Amino acid sequence: MLRRRNGGGNITEKYIYDEKNGLHYKLVGDYYLPCLETPEAPQIGVWGRRRRTHLQEHNEALYAAMLLSGELDTHLDAIDRAAEQMFDRLMRQFAAAEGITEELKAADQLEWAQQMNSIRSRVSKTVNAELIYQ
Q1: What is the rounded CA–CA span in Å between residue 99 and residue 93?
Q2: Cys-Cys link to 72, which of 3, 4, 41, 66 (CB 3.0-4.6 A)?
Q3: How many CA atoms lie within 13 A of 99 on its CB side?
Q4: Sheet containing 23-28: order of strands
């Protein structure tokens, strides 16, 4: 944090650059504060959030280690992507194995929805058991 120098009524600049350390500074009140950016965390989906909750509640040491090392967001993003791919693949496989088609959807929407919800429930349990809650 640098103190503003305004000797003799000179106009001070809103932003300055310090060549010594390579940082830009912004004038806030009477002080120049460094303009620091943190890397954006990836948007974590439902599977990644479930994994985070599981780690927080059941494996606090691993959660803390990953958080402190900066690996947590990367891990959660990877789990989220893998779980989403697994979920989509299993949904298609189960629907094909049980003969749930677009023709059934057109003929009897309620029956199609019931069967797809049943499959969704089973696939969610499988993904949770294999990727999220391990």
Answers
A1: 10
A2: 66
A3: 1
A4: 2-3, 31-34, 23-28, 15-18
- Tokens representing 130 are 């294999």
Structure tokens at 129: 């058991």
The Cα 14–Cα 19 span in angstroms is: 17
Closest C-alpha to 132, from 3, 45, 70, 65: 45
Nearest-10 crossing angle of helices 72-97, 46-58? 120
d(CA 34, CA 16): 9
How does pLDDT run across 55-73, given as a tens digit for each residue?
999 999 999 999 999 899 9
User: Average pLDDT in the 41-57 region?
Assistant: 92
Q: How many CB atoms lie within 10 A of CB 79?
A: 23
Residue pLDDT, tens place only, 20-35: 888 888 888 888 888 8
